[in-house]
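Q&A log
Question type: sequence-to-structure
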Amino acid sequence: MGSNGFCRNQRGATAVEFGLVAFPFLLLVFTIIETGLMLWTYQVLDDAVKQASRTLLTGESVAIYSTPSNPLPHDAKTSTEAFRREVCAQAPALVDCEKLRVDVRGYVSPAAAQTDLAKLNPFSGNTLNTSNFSYNQPGKGEIVVVRATLRYSLYLTGWTNTLANIDGGERGLMAVATFRSEPP
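Response status: OK
Response body:
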């Protein structure tokens, strides 16, 4: 076979080999992209929770999340929504704010936080239960635990449940920030 033998080959062996390899290769590429996008979304959510939590750390949240009609004690629903919007503002592109839920709690000791949060795990089986999430304005010097969960939709790898950990073929992502608020 000379130098032109490859161009004249009409048997189709290369096309068959490509057909056998292309599908698994593209599946692998799409899975890598999906996993990378999911991890990037988690990192953005984690950073957004940490940035939004600064107001809780410094005590600025008392002025920010109170309303003129209900300055103190804070209305939990209004404060939850305001804090959720703050987290969303820190993560504009990758986080679907409609699927984001936040929980803010203050505790007097680390042991109390550990005991309470062990009972309030939002992941149970294949479900994500955030019905007990709320916003409790932390006091000065308290241990503050901020949790944010996001129902992340899997687009490219919906054919497998390897990445999905909650019902509906979605992945539950959770970011947590724990700190002691500044004393008076």
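Response note: The helical segments are 5-8, 13-52, 54-58, 61-64, 76-90, 110-119.
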